[in-house]
Amino acid sequence: MKRPSGSSLLFTALSILALAPVAAPAQQPVQVQPTPAQQPVPVPTVQAHHTVPVQQTGWYAKADVGVAFTLNTDLEEFFGPTPGSEVKFDPGVRFVFGGGYRVTDWFSAEAQTGVIANSIRSVTGANEDEAVFSNIPLLANVRFECPGNCPVSPFIGGGLGASTAILDADNLDVNGTAIEGSETDVVFAYQAFGGLRFRINDNMGICVEYHYFATTESEWEAQNISGHIRFGGTETHTATVAFECRF
User: Which helix (H) or strand (E) holds 9?
Assistant: First the structure.
């Protein structure tokens, strides 16, 4: 057996290398980077705030105070005819209170009473005129107010009823006939009014008001003297501030 030569061995080795499969380079495994978990998108929430609805109907009470200007009126009789005589009044005071019911947010019915008083400044033919003329009205009113929950609400209204007319004389001497004391008479009365209501909160408010108040003629008697004292109808203009509370 022949010993293979070096060249044969080299040829054989090259042939084996040529036929052997080429080893693929080791591939790095693909690493998938984990993605962070998606954070939930915050959804804005609407918080419902419970509000108490404004009372549109219900009871209320109010009181007003202010200045009263009663116009001059005729002195029709002072225990006898007094043609052309006149009674003049000083500025006075009005204090009235009452209450009512709001039927709707724009219409109310109410009742009120109080006092309107003026000192007598002068009487035609009087030697002494120390006296006070007063009215105590009892009126049923209707009131119309601008609807809605506005900070400022205008309103108007009017009323009918009766009034107790009071003549309180310390010393009233007309044409030589003097009287002292107090007498009353019940007369027909009516009024018209308007103003602005300033809202404090859902229940309370301050009102600035104008009132026109009028009565028919009033008549009084005196003891031990025949005849009457009779004033013509009176008209009074008042400007007041009122406090109102709704329930």
Answer: helix 6-19
- The verdict on residue 53 lying in a domain is no
Instruction: Give per-residue pLDDT as tens, 125-139.
Output: 898 889 999 999 999
What does each C-alpha distance from 96 to 8, 107, 110, 139 come to in angstroms? 141, 20, 13, 11
The whole domain housing 72 covers 58-246
Burial (0-12, 13-18, 19+ Cβ within 10 Å), 217: middle
Distance, CA of 12 to CA of 1 (rounded, Å) = 18
Q: Residue 33: inside a domain, yes or no? A: no
| Residue 218 and residue 210 in contact, taking contact as beta carbons nearer than 8 Å | no
What is the Cα–Cα distance from 15 to 18, expressed in whole angstroms?
A: 5
Q: What are phi and psi of 3, to 5 degrees?
A: -80, 125
- Of 77, 29, 92, nearest in space to 227 by CA: 77
Can you tell me whether residue 26 is helix, strand or coil?
A: coil
- The Cα–Cα gap between 166 and 173 comes to 17
Domains of the chain: total: 1
CATH number for the domain spanning 152: value is: 2.40.160.20
Does the pLDDT of residue 10 top 60, yes or no?
Answer: no
Query: How far apart, in whole angstroms, are the C-alpha atoms of residue 131 and residue 232?
Result: 17
Q: Is residue 34 part of a domain?
A: no
132 is a domain residue = yes
**DSSP string covering 186-199:** EEEEEEEEEEEEEE
User: pTM here?
Assistant: 0.76
